[in-house]
Amino acid sequence: MRIWQKPVSVEILTHISKNTAVEQLGIEFTEVGDDYLVGRVPVDHRTHQPFGLLHGGVSVVLAETLGSCGAGFAIPEGYNAVGLDINANHLKGVKTGWVTAIARPVHMGRTTHVWQIDMRNEAGEMTCVSRITMAILAPR
């Protein structure tokens, strides 16, 4: 079942991310499904921590980007989605390549959404799992 209540596409998501942290980190949107978003982040000098691994905070930025965009496009026009809480379990370090994430809703209520974001390396191994809770704010 298609969940989007506003027009959404890879092109729209890319456009709204211009001149933001998303663009600076090289995060790319790659797919919009009926009930999910996919994006990826490069593992390179922009996203490494001092010990040569993908910075855990960058994984969280990727998760928050996908979860926030997902919630924002799955609510009616005039409503806003804002982050309440995010967590991440880092399961496997990544030194090079790309980490790809898929965000899917776990719960879509009237006042809150919960989205799960699963991240994998190029070998398909899970590197991080995150959940974000979004507050859905009615128009004022």
From TrEMBL:
The UniProt family comment states: Belongs to the thioesterase PaaI family.
Arranged from A to Z, the UniProt key words for this protein are: Hydrolase
SUPFAM superfamilies recorded? Thioesterase/thiol ester dehydrase-isomerase
Q: Does the keyword Hydrolase apply?
A: yes
Q: What is the lineage of its organism?
A: Bacteria, Pseudomonadati, Pseudomonadota, Betaproteobacteria, Burkholderiales
Domain Thioesterase as annotated: residue spans: 51-126
Source organism's superkingdom?
A: Bacteria
Task: List, alphabetically, the Pfam families matched.
Answer: 4HBT
This chain's protein is named Hotdog fold thioesterase
Query: Does the entry feature the keyword Cytoplasm, yes or no?
Result: no
PANTHER family, from UniProt?
1,4-DIHYDROXY-2-NAPHTHOYL-COA THIOESTERASE 1
Checking InterPro entries in the record gives: HotDog_dom_sf, PAAI_dom, Thioestr_dom
